[in-house]
């Protein structure tokens, strides 16, 4: 059977999300140049979806579009059913998605409906059916092979598949496929209702894509003290993250959590401030190019993984850093 | 065998729902070899009413899809209104089982729950979930599947009297054959290796030295 991939393309604010572009890169890497890769974009309709479709088709010729009021929100039930229908229509050998909270929610449900085991949170591809994924909070890597019949369903860790804009979205000249899937959803769909999303508005770069990330832990002692980190982040044009302890203590909201069960980051520079370095936190930062740790406890485990460690009181170090660090913002 | 931390949180939530008068019974399920009995006893000691042990010869063949199919079969005989799971196991870090069983059952799902509120009429559940963008709130009609995230609650310790009481609670054993589920697997783990180690780093003595290294050695500025 010839290979072909469907990539679930999440979009927001009128463009395809970075994680999904990474998923396209992974699909193209696995399948090779001669196999078609189709992007699936869906929503309830409107200008943002149209803009996202434009963004997708400008760089990639095969785009499948689904419009339905049921797809206006990221609810797993209609989206999983959409994937089932897309699969029935397109008979893809592979389905890819980013391992975002949306991908984690939807993909396994869709896989079960299609009767296959997905391989999730992949960091490396070996061949079309063999992938590497982290286990034990990234302390071990498992090489897993899919040997079923049915689509090979894979979610990828975006930080492991850098999205090179333009390059990643280049198709091989396949004709444009624009289909509108009909509403044929079974009963189960109407049983969930989206109420709302509480999120913080920020101008800072997204954690998953930022070149520099500055992260705070319990050592910051209060929500107000995170302002010290924010000053440093602003000067460097960095994103701000946090350890689980800081989120549990209520210093910062959950979407800043970095770690095994939070966000995975792989920036050029990761600065951990007042973070002890629990294994679960390290799981989220291992692929950073350079790790810096600032902690007054010389024995903190974070110093085992840091490229540069500064055993100093962060309340002294931070103001000095803010004053002396080169400004990235123009 | 100690209980997966996320599952402990799920058990705790079930107990709180029962204590709030929104459920009449809490049943804990574990699947695998004999070591599951200890895990189930922990759940019973926390306060669950009874246990179910799906006994399999070989735990390594229990990939999430197999667990989901077994749960689906159990649900059809037990008829619970709420299926609570931990969001992921801390060994394989899959984060799939809850979503899969919800799909197989045709039930709505709420994953990564940080707050669970059953409605007064017990017909629906309102769940706050931790997602990439913040906290999302959704409402599901029961029966439903909910998977627990870290901040949903802090599980209780089993008290000694409850540990003693747990010894008298029943644990029913059932096999996949009895549930009419064939455990196959479409996945194979070829090998498990250590990830590449990071080179050891150095300690710096001052902010000036740090900035110098970052600029001239690491060249990130």
UniProtKB/TrEMBL annotation, chain A:
Listed GO CC annotations: mitochondrial matrix; mitochondrion
SUPFAM superfamilies reported in the protein's UniProt record: Adenine nucleotide alpha hydrolases-like (SSF52402), DHS-like NAD/FAD-binding domain (SSF52467)
Molecular function in Gene Ontology: electron transfer activity; flavin adenine dinucleotide binding
Database matches in PROSITE patterns: ETF_ALPHA
Location(s) in or outside the cell: Mitochondrion matrix
SMART domains named among the record's database cross-references: ETF (SM00893)
Binding-site list for FAD: 218, 243-244, 257-261, 274-281, 295
One Pfam short name: ETF_alpha
Cofactor(s) in the UniProt record: FAD
Alphabetical UniProt keywords: Electron transport, FAD, Flavoprotein, Transport
Ranges of residues in domain Electron transfer flavoprotein alpha/beta-subunit N-terminal: 5-193
Co-factor binding comment: Binds 1 FAD per dimer.
GO biological process, one term: fatty acid beta-oxidation using acyl-CoA dehydrogenase
Cross-referenced PANTHER family: ELECTRON TRANSFER FLAVOPROTEIN ALPHA, ELECTRON TRANSFER FLAVOPROTEIN SUBUNIT ALPHA, MITOCHONDRIAL
Family, as annotated: Belongs to the ETF alpha-subunit/FixB family.
UniProt-recorded name of the protein: Electron transfer flavoprotein alpha/beta-subunit N-terminal domain-containing protein
């Amino acid at each position: 059977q010839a290979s072909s991939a469907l990539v679930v393309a999440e979009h927001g604010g009128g463009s395809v999300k970075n994680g999904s572009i990474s998923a396209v890169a992974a699909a193209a890497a696995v399948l090779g140049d001669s196999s078609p890769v189709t992007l699936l974009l869906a929503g309830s309709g409107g200008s943002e979806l149209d803009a996202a479709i434009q963004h997708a088709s400008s760089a990639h010729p095969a785009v499948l579009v689904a419009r339905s009021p049921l797809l206006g929100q990221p609810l797993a039930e209609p989206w999983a059913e959409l994937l089932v229908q897309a699969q029935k229509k397109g008979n893809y050998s592979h389905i890819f998605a980013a391992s975002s909270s949306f991908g984690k929610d939807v993909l396994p449900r869709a896989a079960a409906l299609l009767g296959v085991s997905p391989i999730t949170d992949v960091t490396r591809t070996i061949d079309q059916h063999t992938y590497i994924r982290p286990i034990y909070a990234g302390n071990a890597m498992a090489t897993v092979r899919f040997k079923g019949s049915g689509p090979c369903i894979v979610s990828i860790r975006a930080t492991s598949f850098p999205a090179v804009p333009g390059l990643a979205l280049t198709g091989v000249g396949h004709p444009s496929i624009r289909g509108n899937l009909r509403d044929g959803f079974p009963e189960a769909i109407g049983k969930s209702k989206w109420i709302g999303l509480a999120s913080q508005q920020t101008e800072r770069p997204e954690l998953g894509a930022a070149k520099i990330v500055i992260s705070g832990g319990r050592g910051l002692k209060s929500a107000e003290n995170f302002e010290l980190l924010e000053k440093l982040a602003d000067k460097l044009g960095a994103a701000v993250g946090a350890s689980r302890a800081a989120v549990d203590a209520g210093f910062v909201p959950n979407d800043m959590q970095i770690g095994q069960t939070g966000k995975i980051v792989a920036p050029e520079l990761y600065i951990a401030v007042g973070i002890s370095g629990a294994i679960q936190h390290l799981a989220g930062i291992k692929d950073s190019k350079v790790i810096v740790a600032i902690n007054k406890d010389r024995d903190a485990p974070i110093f085992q993984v840091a490229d540069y460690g500064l055993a100093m009181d962060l309340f002294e170090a931070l103001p000095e850093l803010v004053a002396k660090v080169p400004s990235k913002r123009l | 065998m100690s209980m997966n931390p996320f599952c402990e949180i799920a058990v705790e939530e079930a107990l709180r729902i029962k204590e709030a008068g929104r459920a009449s019974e809490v049943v804990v399920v574990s699947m695998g070899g004999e070591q599951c009995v200890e895990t189930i006893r922990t759940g019973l000691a926390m306060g669950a009413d009874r246990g179910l042990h799906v006994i399999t010869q070989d735990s390594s063949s229990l990939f999430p899809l197999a667990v989901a199919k077994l749960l689906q079969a159990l649900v059809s005989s037990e008829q619970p209104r709420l299926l609570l799971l931990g969001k992921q196991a801390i060994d394989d870090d899959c984060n799939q089982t809850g979503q899969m069983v919800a799909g197989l059952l045709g039930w709505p799902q709420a994953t990564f729950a940080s707050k669970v509120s059953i409605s007064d009429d017990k017909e629906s559940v309102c769940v706050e979930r931790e997602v990439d963008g913040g906290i999302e709130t959704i409402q599901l009609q029961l029966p439903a599947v909910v998977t627990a995230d870290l901040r949903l609650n802090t599980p209780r310790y089993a008290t000694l009297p409850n540990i003693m009481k747990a010894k008298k609670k029943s644990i029913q054993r059932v096999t996949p054959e009895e549930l009419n589920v064939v455990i196959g697997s479409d996945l194979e783990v070829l090998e498990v290796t250590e990830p590449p180690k990071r080179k050891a780093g150095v300690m710096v003595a001052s902010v000036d030295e740090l900035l110098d290294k970052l600029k001239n050695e690491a060249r990130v500025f």
